[in-house]
Specification:
This protein is an alpha/beta fold and 233 residues long. Helices cover 33% and strands 24% of the residues. Helix 3 packs across helix 4.
Length: 233
């Protein structure tokens, strides 16, 4: 792994330096990629299909290893962690919002939201109380006993946002979070996502094909083989 260069900003929640990744067969997805994301900042990443956007999110989350370079989340260098350490970091410091929701249909909404706490050391009663508070924040406070089968796609994504935020992550990653939603639901979900990121002081990274989704971000970057560059237009 290469050394950190340049050094991260003092308050960066996410720092990426000289990151490179290729795919089997040797095609380089990107090289020399660098990014700092500050607390409360939301960055949108766009790019052509196959450019490596989802791969980049996997590298940031420690689900994949880069060919070279560094990823630092909330002061912890991922390259220095084993698989157990990466799992613990994800549970404690990273929240995920996916296109496919990943809400468990056989659990109530409050238990879905409480899940990140339930697999940690938080007591059951406290976890459910915090889940109710998070559901209230996303406008579903009266739906805690409902199941996912009773929800629209937009409501399920709001549950996913609540679940991603319940453990107070330093970093929130969203992979095409509105890809399965109608425009009205997408607009509401994006507004909630942006508001939560900024108010909680998390660093947010949003991967999207949608210019409308990217418009909520503080910065929009294009992923290219030579790294991230500012989007124009």
């Amino acid at each position: 792994m290469t050394s950190l260069s340049p050094m991260p900003a003092p308050d960066a929640r996410l720092h990426i330096a000289a990151l490179s990744k290729s795919v089997p067969g040797g095609r380089v997805l990107f090289s020399g990629l660098a990014l700092d994301v500050a607390p409360g900042e939301l960055v949108a990443i766009m790019g052509e299909s196959g450019s490596g956007k989802s791969t980049l999110l996997n590298l940031i989350a420690g689900l994949d290893r880069p060919d070279s370079g560094d990823v630092v989340v909330a002061g912890t260098r991922l390259g220095g962690l084993d698989e157990r350490g990466l799992t613990d970091l994800r549970r404690a410091r990273i929240g995920f919002v996916f296109q496919a929701f990943h809400i468990l249909p056989y659990l109530t909404l409050r238990r879905n939201v409480a899940l990140p706490l339930a697999i940690g050391k938080t007591g059951a009663a406290e976890a459910l109380t915090r889940a109710d508070a998070m559901l209230e924040q996303v406008g579903l406070g009266a739906r805690g006993d409902d199941y996912a089968r009773d929800l629209s796609g937009g409501e399920m994504q709001r549950v996913a946002i609540a679940r991603a935020l319940i453990h107070g992550p330093a970093l929130i990653l969203a992979d095409e979070p509105t890809g399965n939603l109608d425009p009205e639901s997408a607009e509401l979900v994006l507004a909630l996502f942006a508001q939560a990121t900024r108010e909680r002081g998390a660093a947010g990274v949003l991967v999207t094909h949608s210019a409308a989704a990217a418009a909520i971000a503080d910065r929009t970057l294009m992923l290219t083989p030579s790294g991230l560059v500012p989007a124009h237009g």
